[in-house]
Amino acid sequence: MDSSNIKIFSPTGNTKRIADIVMSNLLGKNISNMENICIIGCPIYKGRVPQPYMQWLNDHPFSNKRVIIVETFGNAHIDDALLELHDWAIDHNNQVVGALAIASSHSYSTNEHPIAIHHPNSTELNELDSFIEAVAVKLSKDQNNSLTIPGHFPYKKSPVSTPIQPLRDAERCCDCGLCQEVCPQQNSDILGLDGIVIDQCLMCCACIQHCPTEAISYEKTEFNAKIEMLREVCKTDKTSLFIY
After folding, report:
1. Which of 3.40.630.10, 1.10.10.10, 3.40.50.360, 3.30.43.10 is the CATH number of 2-154+237-243?
2. Could you give the residue range(s) of every CATH 3.30.70.20 domain in the chain?
3. Whose CA is closest to 167, among 229, 211, 107?
4. In terms of C-beta distances under 8 Å and separation of at least 24 residues, what long-range contacts does 32-35 make, across chains too?
5. Nearest CA-CA partner of 204 in 46, 59, 27
6. Cα 65 from Cα 197, distance rounded (Å)
7. CA distance from start to end of the chain
8. Of 69, 89, 113, 167, which is most buried, counting CB atoms within 10 Å of its CB?
9. What is the mean pLDDT of the chain?
10. Pair type for strands 216-218 and 241-243
11. Whether the predicted model's global pTM rises above the 0.85 cut
């Protein structure tokens, strides 16, 4: 999760892509003390910050940084996730100079079941450009205004759902080991998937999205029920947030 100025959680790569855009554009600006800028961020899970990422931040705290928060969501709900990271940064004596939550392709999206694949769209990317420009100005002028972040405290309770067993198609599997490498839980048995500790699975879909031979999927009956629910929730475009 830690790469100098970018400390993010991004199992399927959506959050990393946005964070990389933000950082690469800021590096092209006339901003002093770039080493004091830090991007934190993650995908939003059920309106909250994923628990493993919060635990990682608590285990690797930092302070006195100018923080930019980058979150992605599958066109479902933002809820309290942006506020949750903002509060963590402030509580650890950092300055939050900008915060965004941008709609992205849902991690459950597949070729067979596409969800929010048109996000981020051109409007959202233009808003991202404007956000970067505004944050760059704040950083170059060392402006320090407090941000108003939507959300509620106490944060919403994350709904409990039963994990679904990932399945491996042995005939398609090329034994590359990438699924184990990208698993944020480092679930040691995920390579074979036969002995995966299901209670440790985040259902982040990293193994599915990264598999080069499309050999991993979820049990279809249970997963299709979730897909139908998500299609209903995600069919109406939600508003991305860009705060600075």
Report:
1. 3.40.50.360
2. 166-218
3. 211
4. 32/140, 34/5, 35/5
5. 46
6. 37
7. 24
8. 69
9. 89
10. unpaired
11. yes
Q: Residue 83 has which token pair?
A: 């506020």
Kindly report the three-state secondary structure assignment for every residue of the chain. CEECCEEECCCCCHHHHHHHHHHHHHHCCCCCCHHHEEEEEEECECCECCHHHHHHHHHCCCCCCEEEEEEEECCCCCCCHHHHHHHHHHHCCCEEEEEEEEECCCCCCCCCCCCCCCCCCHHHHHHHHHHHHHHHHHHHCCCCCCCCCCCCCCCCCCCCCCCCCEEECCCCCCCCCHHHHHCCCCCCCCCCCCCCCHHHCCCCCHHHHHCCCCCEEECHHHHHHHHHHHHHHHCCCCCCEEEC
Residue 51 confidence (pLDDT): 93
In words, the CATH class of domain 166-218 is alpha beta
Structure confidence at residue 36 as a pLDDT band (50, 70, 90): very high
Q: Determine the residue type at 26.
A: L
95: Cβ contacts below 8 Å, ≥ 6 apart: 65, 66, 67, 144
| Interaxial angle between packed helices 14-27 and 122-140, expressed in degrees from 0 to 180 and rounded to the nearest 10 | 40
Assess contact for 54 and 83: CB atoms under 8 A.
Answer: no
